Amino acid sequence: MATRQLAYDQSSNTYGKSYDVFLSFKSEDTGKNFTNHLSRALNQAGYRTFEGGDDNNESRREEEINSELFKAIQDSKMCIIVFSQDYASSSWCLDQLVSILEYKMKFACMILPIFYHVDPSNLRKHKGSFGEALNRHEEKFKCERVDEKEYWEDKLKKWKDALSQAADLAGMVLENQHESTFINKIINVISTRLSRPALYIASCSIGIHRRARPINSWVQDDGSNNSNIGILLVCGIGGIGKTTLAKFVYNLNFGYFEISCFLANIRETSKLPNGLIALQKQLLSILLKNEKAKISSVDEGIIKIRNALCYRKVLLVLDDVDEPDLVEAIFDMKDWFGFGSKIIVTTRHKSLLRPQLGHEVHEVGILYTVEANELFNFHAFGHENNQISKDYYKEYLEEVIEWCRGLPLALQVIGSSLAGKSKDVWRSAIEKLREIPTNKIVEKLRLSYELLEDDHDQNLFLHLCCFFVGMKKDFVVRILDKCDFYTLVGIQNLIDRSLVTIEFVNEITIHQLVRDMGRDIVRREATVDPGKRTRLWHHTDSYNVLTGKTGTERVQGMVLDMRMIKKDKCCSSLIPLKQSPIGFFTAWSSKVGNFSLQDHVRTDAFEKMHKLKFLQFNKVQVNGSYKNFPKGLRWLCWSGFPEECIPNEFPMGNVVSIDMRYSSLKQLWNGYKFLQYLEILDLSHSSELITTPDFSGLTNLEKLILEHCTKLINVHNTVGCLQKLMILNLKDCHKLKILPDSICELKCLETLNISGCSNIEYLPTELDKLTSLKELYADGISMINLEAQTWYSSLWAWAWKGRGPLLSPKIHFPKSLHVLNIAKCNLSPDAFNNVDLGIMTSLQWLDLGGNPIDELPDSIKNLTRLKTLNIAYCTKIKHLEGVPSNVTDVNADGCISLEKVGSCAKGHPVEGYLNCINLVEVEGVFKLEPLDSVDPQVLANKMGISNLETIMRSSMVSLVFGRAYDAERLRNEYPGHVQDDITNLFSLSPKKLPPQILYHRGVFSTFLPGESVPNWFSYKFTDAAEAYCTLPNNFNSHKTINGLSICFVYKCPEPYTNVGLYDGPAIWVRNQTKDLNWALYPAWFGLPQDDQTGIMWLSYWKVNNLFEQGDIIEVMGSPQFAEFKELGVKIFYIANDEQTENYDPFEDILRNEFSDEERTYYICT
């Protein structure tokens, strides 16, 4: 079904217009018959009509169109365009069409296309008489002066775009009926549309077409449900644009329903005395065609509305609904709506309706960045959008737009408030926004908070805003459940209200303005004295409360990061390092001058904070006794803890999580501690930690994180007492020598990470008894020091100095593993002979990278669930065979000896083979072989190569693998033998070979010496690396377009001396008509020899069924490192009953692998 499109502005008010209808038509075609009768019928029906026929006057100047014609269009409530067979032959008509559609995009001009004995698809595809007329115009323009060429090309493109756009508008087609009957139907449609005024929509509704598209498509889809009525819930936070979108879609579609009704502000109206009855009266009045409705009770209203519906097709919009009871009665009578009826409900509550209703939900998203910029600039700088003004405020624009985060309301309010203000005011306003959000925005957003069902959800929301944004949902639930919250159901309620979202990485996400609204609610608890607030999320407030000792028992949580205390006289000598991606937990410079906080922050500042549950400190130094420290702490997060040992009097009896990353601890505490609630202990990056404590009192510990504790020597044997431990992370503990045997007693352990423990000397002998272990990371371990008595000796004994390989039984990793990483362990092929990978039937991810293996272990073929295989920088592998068919992701980056990848890896993306500089075939993806292996007839017919023998005898071409890059940064992460191999990689010269043929999926290419595009090509372009051409539509209808040949000539500005220096060239092909794109980045590309100056890249693209007559095709050559010289294109046709040539071993270029966003297929990228 054609999609109706329309944009509305304040100027859309149809009152005060000079004309009701603007009539556009080709006079010679319809002026004396159909259009004449239509115009007379319009006048008889009382509609003032302006006739915009061409009157055979092609000589009238364009200025007349821009003045007289555009004024008439602007003064008309509606435009009717009569498309007849010869319509496109008139440039006057085409200019009219462009003007109408341009006006339509800005203002509320309803458009009704009439297809008079015309197929709408001919407009869209520029076929039939429309294609022929456009071709005549194009030939005429070629005769114009050279200096006007660009002007006429732009005009032709506008005409084509306008015809395609008009074809997509919902119109009326004359076919198999009397003209008089058809004209009566037109009059009825016009009467319906003009009798219902469109709803007002504010000016500059940026992005509204894109955002409304899914809603509009749903409204126009009669087959979207199996019942008479479709129900769509449009939800989102306040200020996101729900009502505006609903109005926009209503305006597009109300003329296509028997009854249309937009009930606004339902939530507010329902609060008034008899508010629900007032809404029923409003709806009933519309159903009864403006008859005054009398209703004395809600039940009576339900009965009268049901009777008035009478199975009619209805479009009903219920705006701003919050209580399901307000609309349930309407849905209970849905069987009385006519087939095709649609109900749209806008709400902040995603779970407003019962699932049994079978409704659909559409969540309104924020504006794209470019849309946000445009909307803000419109309100800040006016309609002119002055570039000089934008440049003047450039230093502030990005920050303020970023603060708005795509929320239309914020962009409008902030933009308008800053309009015409000086730079100083802009700067001051931005500083205020950081601390105190704009009241108008807060009040709009706060409504969602106030509509939460109870104070439980409100308090949960405020906790999330102040302390938990960006944190993992599981962690938040773990902490807050211990604070008497019902966290899971509470978070779901917040999600339903669009206050919180859970990102794909399971993180708590809150729109920045919604977060600021929550924090502002806390700020208003005590605007002057922050110590009386429930939550101290602002670092300066926390610092002042602690140094002033003004904290009260109301304080439940506190955040203080000393990096955020800037320009304060008490901490001006602090020297923070640049923040790393881990944010709050960032290493600090040890050079903090002579300043110390111990004179300012003392433990007695916490004595009144009896309700303190959350403490987030970073590099805060506190002096005094912890005897009276708050005892109700649940979350102790103290990055950079300054003590060497946690004092014994520190109250931790209720703590659920201790997070002391980057601490100065040498030991955690003295002796034994019973902490029954502790579930997480994170001491990562505590570079002074030597040993771990007695764990026997931590009976509920689930996560133990000791990553990068570089001085840690051993782990206490009581670690085996942690029967609930699920994660043990010892990554990069470089001095760790022993893992205790008691680790094998951890029956719940799921993840063990010993990566980078390069000095480990002993591993437990029974790790295979860890029956719950799912992930084992052991990459980068030095196996030379492992004792021969361990079962690992059979795996790594070959590497021992002074010893030969040992004959040992098969090695059994835990069968339960899903992830195994044994990369960079210097494992030889002999070592892998003793590894039985096949028993790990659940394994999904395997990393063998950086090991000196020359082939994959045989047992890998039994891994039927394996999805990801990493063999990066296995520099000895030449042939990759035996990869299980279920593997979808192979990373062979840096396998510089690899020559061929077998069919087992068919379909794997080529980006997995970076720096494989000898790779000539990935079966089913690409293949490089001599040019003379191809049928000479095919080369002659498809690429214009008729002298194959001469070319093979006299030409040599330098070829470079197109997936090479400088891996200097990566190579230092791998063992010595890998580093040596990679060192030689970038000193290699390009391969000098006879001409080769390069196959890709549906494309084959060759690179030959050449300076220009051969005359064999139909189209030739020399002034730009872009080519636009319209596929002819006047050839035999029994033929279809089968392929394209492309010739891209480029030259190198300087000698190309080694691999990995530049990106290779690329060709883009775009079917503008169908919005399909292909990008070809060749696996190999050619370079000129010393005595050559140019390379001619010839390629043939097999495009069966993807291109049609009249399609607009764009071909672009991207030379990357090189310089563009010329571009040529030739089109091939095939008879419908002719067999496709059998020259290509691969399928056609694909059309079923496009993403909805990009609509682009990357060939061998």
UniProtKB/TrEMBL annotation:
<dbReference type="GO" id="GO:0006952">
    <property type="term" value="P:defense response"/>
</dbReference>
<dbReference type="InterPro" id="IPR036390">
    <property type="entry name" value="WH_DNA-bd_sf"/>
</dbReference>
<dbReference type="InterPro" id="IPR044974">
    <property type="entry name" value="Disease_R_plants"/>
</dbReference>
<dbReference type="GO" id="GO:0043531">
    <property type="term" value="F:ADP binding"/>
</dbReference>
<dbReference type="InterPro" id="IPR032675">
    <property type="entry name" value="LRR_dom_sf"/>
</dbReference>
<dbReference type="GO" id="GO:0016020">
    <property type="term" value="C:membrane"/>
</dbReference>
<keyword id="KW-0520">NAD</keyword>
<keyword id="KW-0472">Membrane</keyword>
<keyword id="KW-0677">Repeat</keyword>
<dbReference type="InterPro" id="IPR027417">
    <property type="entry name" value="P-loop_NTPase"/>
</dbReference>
<dbReference type="InterPro" id="IPR058192">
    <property type="entry name" value="WHD_ROQ1-like"/>
</dbReference>
<dbReference type="Pfam" id="PF00931">
    <property type="entry name" value="NB-ARC"/>
</dbReference>
<dbReference type="GO" id="GO:0005524">
    <property type="term" value="F:ATP binding"/>
</dbReference>
<dbReference type="GO" id="GO:0007165">
    <property type="term" value="P:signal transduction"/>
</dbReference>
<keyword id="KW-0433">Leucine-rich repeat</keyword>
<dbReference type="InterPro" id="IPR000157">
    <property type="entry name" value="TIR_dom"/>
</dbReference>
<protein>
    <recommendedName>
        <fullName>TIR domain-containing protein</fullName>
    </recommendedName>
</protein>
<dbReference type="Pfam" id="PF23282">
    <property type="entry name" value="WHD_ROQ1"/>
</dbReference>
<dbReference type="InterPro" id="IPR002182">
    <property type="entry name" value="NB-ARC"/>
</dbReference>
<dbReference type="Pfam" id="PF01582">
    <property type="entry name" value="TIR"/>
</dbReference>
<dbReference type="Pfam" id="PF00560">
    <property type="entry name" value="LRR_1"/>
</dbReference>
<dbReference type="InterPro" id="IPR042197">
    <property type="entry name" value="Apaf_helical"/>
</dbReference>
<feature type="domain" description="TIR">
    <location>
        <begin position="17"/>
        <end position="194"/>
    </location>
</feature>
<keyword id="KW-0611">Plant defense</keyword>
<keyword id="KW-0175">Coiled coil</keyword>
<dbReference type="InterPro" id="IPR001611">
    <property type="entry name" value="Leu-rich_rpt"/>
</dbReference>
<dbReference type="InterPro" id="IPR035897">
    <property type="entry name" value="Toll_tir_struct_dom_sf"/>
</dbReference>
